[in-house]
Amino acid sequence: MRFTDLPDLALRSYGGSVIAANDESFAEKESLIKPGPSRFQPHTFGNKGQVYDGWETRRRREPGHDWAIVRLGMPGVIRGVVIDTAWFKGNYPPYASVEACRADGYPSAAELAGAEWTEIVPKSPLKGDSEHEFDVAAERCFTHVRLNMFPDGGIARLRVHGEVVPDPGLLTGLPLDLAALENGARVTGCSDMFYSAPSNMLAPGLARHQAEGWETGRRRDEGNDWVTVRLAGRGVVHVVELDTANLLFNAPGWASVSGFDGEGEPGDGDWFEVLPRTRLQPDTRHRFRLDGDSRPVRQARLDVYPDGGMARLRLYGSLTPDGEAAVAERWNRLR
């Protein structure tokens, strides 16, 4: 798996925020973490010059460099960073670096000045109108990143891909969505993601349009499409939610959910039924309460028949005692 297949921890729609920048004279800092690619319309001028969909600072006439601080929407282990200078051709920075820190609570930019910052991307050369991918090896949980550009210029997007590490204080002893990205769930396998990625199904909030869910190509064989998810922790599922919002003519006809209570790679015979094959309707939020004593699960599998899209998958339940212990151990180990 490439690091770009992991969720963008800084994304605005995942709760990320650009909390400070030393300068944003030409284009606002908030654009750095907007969903989707940067847009550009030539010969579109405002009071400050050509309008750019990105962050752009003034031309420096003194020593130093420009910076912006981003609070991650979902704290986690950063596996890679993308610095995108799309559309910035004569005004991009020649170099950039990225630092990260872990700070509890909701500190201000001034309070973060005294934090322990770790360099995760060293000062590296950039090109104009290009995406630059940087692997990150720091095995720690971070809550904030600081983007530095040398000495000035414009950057369209900053993507911070990684694995979510949830705060156990927000999960222990409480009902939760075991399949939520923000609670630490992640996609581990998928049959097809021709139109959009399956991790979209686990994102916070409601999907605003088709691209914010998972959608496959049209199958021309006798099989069906599927996604596997490692849950936030070992837990018991009480309610399954399958949301086909915005999918008017390309929702699956049916779907089922299976579970696996193991750490390794499950075989075909290891899955047990959580929700039997059930008929679905387009553009509908389906909720199913599970009757009886449910078995604990560590991994879940969503099968759609035969193909189509799913806006959101929610598996509401609670962690088992050993599931809670594992979440707490990981949080403390990655400090």
TrEMBL record:
Signal peptide segment: none
GO molecular function list: allantoicase activity
Reactions listed under catalytic activity: allantoate + H2O = (S)-ureidoglycolate + urea
Record keywords, A-Z: Hydrolase, Purine metabolism
Pathway noted in the entry: Nitrogen metabolism; (S)-allantoin degradation; (S)-ureidoglycolate from allantoate (aminidohydrolase route): step 1/1
Sequence similarity: Belongs to the allantoicase family.
PANTHER family linked: ALLANTOICASE, INACTIVE ALLANTOICASE-RELATED
Protein name: Probable allantoicase
Organism (species): Bailinhaonella thermotolerans
